[in-house]
């Protein structure tokens, strides 16, 4: 007969194993449409010191994985939780994340032994999402539309060039990270390129398609004032410098337009979502340069002729651009500006 202490030890060991285990097998939809990690847990579990565990998920076409994490750990102790190669910060209270990549790692590292976490997962059927078609030369909110995916189409034999713009604060919001990008006409049959943040890097800070279509999907539904603008790649690839500014009708903004590398040209597209026009209130030229600034309506894709041309000492302001989007081109010029959207 087993002694009471041995029985207690076995019971304790069984309890710990049920609370934290690191499965070797990949979790798939075939295991059930929902579940929890660690397997069998119903609340936060303390992970033993020295543990490194990767929970692997298989995500089939037409599905996304939703994970809701509650966690408490100290990053200074080199503890961490990583989802889709991004850290889940602590403390986290039912932090919701989505993923669409075919194989997804959920990494838990407990160096200290004090890390605690609990997560639930659900496979979400997105195969019936409706497609929204956008032409290049247009802008749209980064939150996208509920239960839909957006496909941008460039001209035949061209490519899509997609850029992100934030409000006048200049700060990027979470929608950059929350937008999934696919190289093609839909997300069911196209190559997954990653989140937009994976593609947002120099020198262009632009996501390019390999064909004339690029598809975007956002499952988070986080409200945002940020915008995507799409162009034909042939219209903007030649630009040495191309920036996006997002303004509003509530406040005017001021800034400086010039080529950061002191080369000849720089382009800026200014967008005011919900506005009828953009008011150019002031332009102040640096007189050590002898160039000019041109203003055309809409985006570079439309290839419209300049509506205004300004130089030092030759500025009749204010001027109104009768469109919610306008593109400024500086040539050998350094210009301080003030603009505001108008309803």
From TrEMBL:
Originating species? Caenorhabditis elegans
Choose any GO biological process term that the UniProt entry carries and state it.
innate immune response
Q: Which residues form the signal peptide?
A: 1-18
Keywords in alphabetical order: Signal
Could you tell me the gene encoding this protein? irg-5
Report which superkingdom the organism of origin falls in: Eukaryota
Q: Name one Pfam family in it.
A: CUB_2
**The protein's name:** CUB-like domain-containing protein
Against InterPro entries, the record matches this protein to: CUB-like_dom
CUB-like domain mapped to chain residues? 17-126
């Amino acid at each position: 007969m087993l002694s009471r202490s041995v029985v207690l030890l076995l019971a304790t060991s069984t309890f710990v194993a049920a609370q934290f285990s690191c499965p070797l097998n990949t979790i798939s939809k075939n295991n059930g449409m929902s579940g929890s990690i660690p397997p069998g847990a119903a609340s936060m579990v303390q992970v033993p010191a020295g543990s490194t565990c990767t929970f692997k998920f298989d995500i089939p076409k037409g599905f996304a994985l939703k994970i809701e994490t509650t966690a408490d750990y100290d990053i200074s102790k080199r503890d961490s939780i990583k989802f889709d190669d991004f850290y889940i910060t602590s403390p986290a209270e039912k932090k919701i994340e989505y993923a669409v990549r075919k194989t997804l790692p959920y990494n838990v590292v407990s160096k200290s032994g004090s890390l605690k976490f609990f997560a639930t997962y659900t496979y979400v059927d997105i195969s019936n999402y409706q497609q929204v078609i956008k032409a290049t030369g247009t802008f749209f909110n980064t939150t996208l539309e509920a239960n839909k995916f957006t496909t941008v189409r460039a001209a035949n034999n061209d490519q899509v060039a997609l850029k992100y713009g934030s409000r006048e604060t200049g700060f990027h919001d979470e929608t950059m990270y929350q937008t999934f990008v696919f190289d093609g006409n839909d997300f069911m049959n196209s190559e997954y390129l990653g989140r937009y943040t994976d593609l947002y890097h120099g020198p262009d800070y632009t996501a390019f398609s390999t064909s004339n279509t690029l598809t975007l999907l956002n499952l988070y539904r986080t409200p945002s004032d940020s915008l995507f603008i799409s162009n034909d790649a042939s219209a903007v690839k030649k630009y040495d410098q191309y920036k996006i500014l997002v303004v509003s009708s509530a406040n005017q903004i001021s800034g400086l337009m010039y080529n950061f590398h002191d080369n000849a040209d720089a382009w800026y597209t200014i967008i005011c979502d919900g506005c009828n026009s953009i008011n150019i209130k002031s332009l102040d030229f640096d007189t050590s340069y002898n160039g000019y600034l041109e203003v055309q309506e809409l985006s570079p894709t439309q290839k419209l002729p300049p509506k205004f041309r300004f130089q030092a000492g030759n500025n009749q302001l204010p001027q109104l651009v009768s469109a919610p989007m306008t593109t400024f081109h500086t040539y050998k010029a350094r210009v301080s500006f003030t603009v505001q959207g108008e309803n």
